[in-house]
């Protein structure tokens, strides 16, 4: 979405001109939603980030190396969506072993947290007040994820992987309309923190489109991590700076904003570790679909939805019936997700049972071709499924921040990375660590502040060291044991439905991957109405779906997916959004 002043593909003359005239947009990598060829591919929302990944692939790096480089660059050009102050989930296909592995790099609550973390005077805090506070900040997992991935599967060290991003942070990128608008949307809360204001609103105003945004503090932070490793963030002076910022939020004395301190400690940072989890796995139309297990709800909810659809011929159904069954399957799966999924270190999550075909069949029989279900639908019991039965009281889906980012990488050897990372809300907590150049997350607001439904067990309440439930859904699809395609998306709880829609559009409806990503979207999450984009509501099927009882609320935009696909002739194809978030950036090492 944004463009750097100096990237590997820019000429020296253009770079020099940009340095002389910093308010003039510089030459940038060509931005395209699809790229096909050889040697490896990268898809992300941003051309500078995709170019960083391609640079690493061209130098002989593998998909893991390129994914870390791309993610680090997104921390520069997409700082309101991701960065080293956040966390994420990393899914990897190994071409040598034909195995899919995952890393849980989710943020964790402080050891001192309890289920009343966001409760004051017996009442849950207003969401907006919780977001912009130290209370919302979890221990960052992104740096540890990068190091864990490189240690296990990479071929270069962290210092080398960070160099393209360090260069972009030092030299700058050109502000576009999205960056300016996101800054303007957060201007009031950013202005409460001098370090945030100085970095993102020089002169006290959002930067103008076409001006150059530099982040020398982040460049130095990347240099520190490259030189000393991520232990610098979890044990060194940087860790002390993070803790001090959380426990004593650096609020402008002139600000009237009340910013509550958090409880994060240096012990919390020292104790952090990623978790290598078994991926979720379902068979769908003879394919193997792998995703992210809890603490994310993405793999279980996407997988259950696919299992619900397994015995329905949505390939040959009308477009209306296809969309109807798509919406109903996610409605039911979200009912079960809300009741059963949380951090498996704390809660007994019935992952295997949620992904069983027996349980899905017991839910699928609730779906009628002629009439939509009425939400909220009550959950089923995956441990003791009964046909067409539900159990207990329905639990609505709580709000999740939507401004995550996603990237997909494949290399010349056939390895694939599908990686979604986030700082939660647009702009995270709004708090920049002074002198360090990055925003802290507000990930702990993904917890339920209080039980969603009084009297019903809620697996997503805060707790000591607990990981909040996520909807992140990085997904890899194998056909006959070989990679076919991979996809993922940002979008809060709509991530699950976005990925599900891309999967079914590609697998069942036969759309090319770039068209499956571009298709108008709707998202039913066991709510009274499904969110739907204007293009979806403008289609003739919308009226037909309403006649079946489907209800819709307008949403300007849902998700921003990326993906890669291995074509029958051996070429790779990368795909990204055509218009959402200004369009994504797909790149290939060698076009052909």
UniProtKB/TrEMBL annotation:
* InterPro entries reported in the protein's UniProt record: GGT_bact, GGT_lsub, GGT_peptidase, GGT_ssub_C, Ntn_hydrolases_N
Q: Name one GO molecular function term.
A: leukotriene C4 gamma-glutamyl transferase activity
What Gene3D superfamilies does this protein map onto? 1.10.246.130, 3.60.20.40
Q: What catalytic activity is recorded?
A: an N-terminal (5-L-glutamyl)-[peptide] + an alpha-amino acid = 5-L-glutamyl amino acid + an N-terminal L-alpha-aminoacyl-[peptide]; glutathione + H2O = L-cysteinylglycine + L-glutamate; an S-substituted glutathione + H2O = an S-substituted L-cysteinylglycine + L-glutamate
The record's listing under Pfam families reads: G_glu_transpept (PF01019)
Q: Which EC number(s) does UniProt give?
A: 2.3.2.2, 3.4.19.13
Q: Where is this region: Disordered?
A: 373-404, 451-470
* Superkingdom, natural source: Bacteria
Q: Could you state what the record's PTM comment says about this protein?
A: Cleaved by autocatalysis into a large and a small subunit.
Key word Mitochondrion present: no
Kindly state which keywords UniProt assigns to this record, in alphabetical order. Acyltransferase, Glutathione biosynthesis, Hydrolase, Signal, Transferase, Zymogen
**Recorded metabolic or biological pathway in which this protein acts:** Sulfur metabolism; glutathione metabolism
Please list which residues make up the signal peptide.
1-27
Report the sequence similarity comment from the record: Belongs to the gamma-glutamyltransferase family.
Assembly, in brief, is:
This enzyme consists of two polypeptide chains, which are synthesized in precursor form from a single polypeptide.
| The protein's name in its UniProt record | Glutathione hydrolase proenzyme
Please name the source species. Kutzneria viridogrisea
User: Which taxonomic lineage is given here?
Assistant: Bacteria, Bacillati, Actinomycetota, Actinomycetes, Pseudonocardiales
């Amino acid at each position: 979405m944004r463009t750097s002043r100096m990237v590997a593909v820019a000429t020296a003359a253009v770079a020099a001109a940009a340095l002389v005239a910093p308010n003039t947009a510089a030459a940038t990598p060509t931005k395209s939603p699809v790229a096909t060829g050889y040697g490896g591919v990268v898809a992300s929302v941003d051309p500078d980030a995709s170019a960083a990944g391609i640079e690493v692939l061209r130098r002989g790096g593998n998909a893991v190396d390129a994914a870390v480089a791309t993610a680090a660059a997104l921390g520069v050009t997409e700082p309101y969506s991701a960065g080293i102050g956040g966390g994420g989930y990393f899914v990897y296909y190994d071409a040598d072993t034909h195995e899919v592995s995952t890393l849980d790099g989710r943020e964790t609550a402080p050891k001192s947290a309890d289920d009343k973390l966001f409760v004051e005077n017996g009442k849950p805090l207003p969401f907006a007040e919780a977001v912009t506070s130290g209370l919302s900040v979890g221990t960052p997992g992104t740096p540890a994820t990068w190091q864990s991935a490189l240690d296990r599967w990479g071929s270069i060290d962290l210092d080398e992987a960070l160099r393209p991003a360090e260069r972009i942070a030092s030299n700058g990128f050109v502000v576009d309309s999205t960056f300016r608008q996101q800054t303007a949307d957060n201007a009031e809360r950013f202005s409460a923190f001098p370090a945030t204001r100085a970095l993102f609103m020089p002169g006290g105003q959002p930067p103008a489109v076409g001006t150059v945004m530099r982040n020398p503090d982040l460049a130095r932070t990347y240099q520190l991590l490259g030189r000393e490793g991520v232990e610098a963030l979890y044990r060194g002076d940087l860790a002390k700076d993070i803790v001090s910022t959380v426990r004593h939020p650096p609020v402008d004395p002139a600000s009237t904003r009340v910013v509550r301190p958090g409880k994060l400690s240096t012990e919390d940072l020292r104790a952090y570790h990623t978790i290598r989890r078994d991926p979720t796995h379902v068979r769908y139309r003879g394919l193997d679909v792998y995703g992210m297990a809890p603490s994310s709800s993405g793999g279980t909810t996407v997988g259950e939805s696919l299992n619900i659809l397994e015995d329905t011929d949505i390939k040959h159904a009308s477009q209306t019936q296809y969309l109807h069954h798509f919406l109903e399957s996610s409605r039911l799966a979200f009912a079960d997700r809300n009741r059963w999924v949380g951090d498996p270190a704390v809660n007994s999550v019935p992952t295997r049972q949620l992904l069983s075909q027996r349980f899905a069949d017991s839910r699928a029989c609730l779906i009628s071709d002629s009439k939509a279900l009425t939400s909220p639908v009550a959950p089923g019991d995956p441990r003791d499924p009964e046909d067409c039965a539900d159990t207990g009281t329905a639990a609505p889906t709580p709000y999740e921040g939507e401004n995550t980012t996603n990237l997909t990488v494949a290399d010349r050897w056939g390895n694939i990375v599908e990686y979604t990372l986030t700082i939660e809300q647009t702009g995270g907590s709004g708090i920049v660590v002074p002198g360090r150049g990055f925003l802290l997350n507000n990930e702990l607001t993904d917890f339920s502040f209080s039980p969603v439904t009084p009297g019903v067990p809620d697996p997503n309440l805060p707790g000591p060291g607990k990981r909040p439930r996520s909807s992140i859904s990085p997904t890899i699809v194998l056909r006959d044991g070989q990679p076919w395609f991979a996809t993922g998306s940002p979008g809060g709880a709509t991530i699950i439905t976005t990925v599900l829609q891309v999967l079914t559009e590609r697998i069942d409806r036969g759309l090319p991957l770039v068209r499956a990503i571009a298709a108008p979207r709707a998202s039913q999450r066991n709510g009274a109405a499904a969110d739907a984009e204007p293009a979806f509501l403008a289609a003739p099927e919308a009226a037909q779906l309403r006649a079946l009882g489907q209800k819709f609320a307008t949403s300007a935009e849902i998700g921003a997916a990326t993906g890669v696909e291995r074509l029958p002739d051996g070429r790779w194809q990368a795909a990204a959004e055509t218009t959402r978030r200004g369009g994504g950036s797909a790149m290939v090492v060698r076009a052909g």
